Amino acid sequence: MLSSPSFSLFSFELSGSATVTKSISVKYRTADIIGAILILIFAAAAIYATTTWLPPVLSGDPGAAFFPRIALGIMVFFSTVLLFQRVRTSQIETDSEESKSAEIPIGPLCAAVCYSGLAVIGIAIAAFEISGFAFLAFMLGVRTNNWFWAIITALISVLLMYFIFIILLNVRLPLLFLPEYFGF
């Protein structure tokens, strides 16, 4: 078993063998802090990326970046609250709270992160319908191992997201064929 030097904030060890999935054991507090920082970095990059999106077309139109910025603002708020809470409470944690850790499997984590990135890139290439459906069907199918219900659930979810975001909220997303069948 490999172990790294133990620090007060960053203490983790790699465990596993050739027959067992490799995983990282991370203290809950450390995982919360790292997760909050990564979300803040992602949100800052995404907010910067929305500055190049189309400006509002008509007066009163919030523009293409309005709803993503609202979601990113909510992410920033809750990540900041989590970060300050976990940093501030470090002095009053008990010994039992210090020893709690989470086992994070490396393979599935890397696969989920890579596939999520491909889904985001896929929206620009293959539009929302195909990218969203493929992402949901694959993730649900792998997770549940019931591909029939994964495909049905992904289809219903994409249609539901289309009606909520495109029809009701007027969010502009790259679309391929749904407006031809469900245009209002």
What does this structure look like?
With 184 residues, the chain is of the alpha+beta class. It has 2 domains: 1-99; 106-184. Helices cover 63% and strands 9% of the residues. Strands 1-2-3-4 form a 4-stranded antiparallel beta sheet.
What keyword list fits this structure?
disordered N terminus; single chain; 9% strand; 184 residues; four-stranded antiparallel sheet; 4 strands
Q: Brief overview, please?
A:
With 184 residues, the protein is of the alpha+beta class.
Q: Secondary structure elements and their pairing?
A:
Blueprint: E1 2-3, E2 12-15, E3 23-27, H1 28-49, H2 66-88, H3 95-99, E4 101-105, H4 106-144, H5 147-168, H6 178-182
Antiparallel strand pairs: 1-2, 2-3, 3-4
String of helices and strands: EEEHHHEHHH
By helix and strand content, what is the structural category? Answer: alpha+beta
Mean pLDDT, as a whole number? 76
Shape annotation: flat
End-to-end C-alpha gap: 61 Å
Radius of gyration, whole Å:
21 Å
Name the helicity range.
Answer: 55-70%
